[in-house]
Amino acid sequence: MSYIIAVTGKGGVGKTTCAALLVTQLIRNNKRPVLAVDADPNNCLDAALGVHTDVTIGGVREEARQIAGKGMASGISKQQLLELKISESLVEADDFDLITMGRPEGPGCYCYANNVLKAALGEIASNYPYVVLDNEAGLENLSRRIVQKVNLMVMVTDPSARGVDTIKRLFDLTHEMGVEYDKLAIIINRLRSDREPRFINDLQNITNADFIVALPENSELADYAEDGKSFISLPDNNDVVVILKKMIADIGI
Fold this sequence. Notes:
The chain is α/β, with parallel strands linked by helices. It contains ten helices and eight strands. The chain has helices at 15-28, 45-48, 57-69, 78-88, 111-124, 140-143, 161-176, 200-207, 219-227, 239-251, and strands spanning 3-9, 34-39, 91-92, 96-100, 130-135, 149-157, 180-191, 211-216. It has an eight-stranded mixed beta sheet with strand order 3-4-2-5-1-6-7-8, with helices on both faces. Strand 6 (149-157), helix 7 and strand 7 (180-191) form a beta-alpha-beta unit. Helix 1 crosses helix 10 (239-251).
């Protein structure tokens, strides 16, 4: 059974960066192959991992609809056609594979594509010991039950008061929607000082998080993002890498 890590948080806090760094750390811990799932419509996990996505679930949905509408899929159901196209949409790298939700291309909502992604992940994920799910802002994907249970929920925030309030709301939503997880980690990203944030104790008391870590503002990380370089090539002694490596070790992954 796969160990599933779900990363969530409000937009702009570095959620995708953290997801890519977690994939990186799993690879360095020989927990491979990893399945990376970019479930954010504004997909950019591929760039953070140094690969390029040509086909998304949103595009596959529209392509399958057109093929079925033209009667070109004789001998195969629409569901089977979708699953075939989804397997073809996997981006394969040496130590991980990536599947991307993307945006629907054409009329319709995410509902059908979500159901297909859920079914496909049930089949695909079983081939990977670890799955890292980069969610869209909030808990939309988790509330749609793309995955039934999460082993590690990672909530990412910036050090602002608004960001912390968002984490509190996300925590409340997980319980309101019955989202299940074994462990909760909160990452406070882009900390600009060495001083521990005053609100950490409040977050701990409210969420009872298993782990709360603070990642400093990191110029090397910013340079990698600006230059379009894969975070997988970040050196082991990078401050952020060191902190996440310890978190993963403390979690016992």
